[in-house]
Design goal:
The protein is of the alpha+beta class. It has a single domain, classed as Syd protein (SMI1/KNR4-like, 3-Layer(aba) Sandwich), CATH 3.40.1580.20. About 35% of the residues lie in helices and about 25% in strands. The chain contains 5 helices and 12 strands. The chain has a 7-stranded antiparallel sheet. The protein has a 3-stranded antiparallel sheet with strand order 1-3-2, with no helix packed on it. Strand 9 and strand 10 form a beta hairpin. Helix 2 packs parallel to helix 4.
Length: about 190
């Protein structure tokens, strides 16, 4: 069954939350998001927050500011990826890679995300690289997982270089192959 990006992301997020509940009895927790307001917060600990995904606010439910800033058309999948829900970043495994799926925490975070995407695209343009839009971070700061804005493929890319490896033909299939990973909260 082919899922949309929104359906695949919602399904993965449900698996992620269920894994946390099963292993800890609590929803996902984050120390990085402690003290940052969000409608996702359901409980606060000593130096962490517990969160659950929330519906993305209806206004500005797209990345048009990024497209306009660079005068390019963005792959529709990237709009759906970043505007399906508000949530904390989620650890996952894809084949042998452990990654952190980038998510939007609150409306300020959405503005910051758009600024970061613009900066990323401007750097690529300056280096004469084809445009990509990051969707996940890795242990190494030199590599990231991105959506190729020309083909819609999901790629592993080395920052600032032409070194790229195709991981999946599209974003929905990539998300569908992710396995949730329990992140350790210090």
């Amino acid at each position: 069954m082919n899922m949309t990006v929104s359906e695949a992301l919602t399904h993965f997020t449900q698996q992620y939350v269920e894994m946390w509940l099963e292993h800890t009895g609590l929803p996902p927790a984050s120390t990085e998001l402690y003290g940052i307001p969000s409608p996702c917060i359901v409980r606060t600990g000593e130096n962490w927050v517990y969160w659950e995904p929330q519906a993305f606010p209806e206004q500005n439910k797209n990345l048009d500011k990024v497209a306009i800033a660079l005068d390019i058309e963005l792959q529709p999948a990237i709009h759906d990826f970043y505007t399906t829900q508000l949530a904390g970043d989620m650890k996952a495994k894809f084949q042998d890679q452990t990654l952190s799926l980038v998510q939007v925490w609150n409306e300020d975070d959405f503005i910051r995300l758009q600024e970061n995407l613009i900066g990323h695209l401007v750097t690529q343009k300056r280096l004469k690289l084809s445009p990509t839009l990051f969707i996940a971070t890795l242990e190494s700061d030199l590599e990231m997982i991105s959506l190729c804005n020309l083909t819609g493929e999901i790629i592993l890319e080395k920052f600032g270089s032409k070194e790229r490896k195709v991981l999946a033909p599209d974003l929905a299939q990539f998300i569908g192959k992710l396995s949730p990973v329990l992140a350790h909260v210090e």
